[in-house]
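Example S7 (structure tokens).
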């Protein structure tokens, strides 16, 4: 996998717990996407992802842990669908500053290179989440795979 720069890295679909497996089966069987489990039970989230195919499926799962309210609120307000678009950048701080210069605030940041299943696979896996822009959620992603 190459570092995604100045392009969409992946699209995040938010799903209800009761339809999560059916959606995953569709992506696997109908589209041939190999999804990798990167669930975060400590956060109450089921996550399947294929960075190679540009797909992430996410679902709040309260029985696993404390679910971030933003996912359940999204489902209540919008139903299932595109939750976020992750856009690859070559400098997270500079890209975040450009967004803020255009009046779009960074709502939170995170780093995931040291979180399973990504440990040892990425030099950097950092994100800056932006407030919605024209009705869409965007996340800036500085994603640098380790070279093998």
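Recovered sequence:
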């Amino acid at each position: 996998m190459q570092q995604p720069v100045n392009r969409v890295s992946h699209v995040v679909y938010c799903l209800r717990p009761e339809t999560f497996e059916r959606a995953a089966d569709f992506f696997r069987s109908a589209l041939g996407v190999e999804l990798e489990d990167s669930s975060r039970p400590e956060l109450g989230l089921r996550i399947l992802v294929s960075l190679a195919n540009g797909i992430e499926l996410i679902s709040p799962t309260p029985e696993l842990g404390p679910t971030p309210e933003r996912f359940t609120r999204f489902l209540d307000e919008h139903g299932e669908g595109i939750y976020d678009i992750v856009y690859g950048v070559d400098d997270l701080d500079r890209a975040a500053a450009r967004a803020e210069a255009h009046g779009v605030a960074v709502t939170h940041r995170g780093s995931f290179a040291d979180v399973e299943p990504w440990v040892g696979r990425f030099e950097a896996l950092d994100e800056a989440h932006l407030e919605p822009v024209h009705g869409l959620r965007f996340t800036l992603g500085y994603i640098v795979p380790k070279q093998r």
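Notes on this example. Helices lie at 20-30, 69-78, 92-101.
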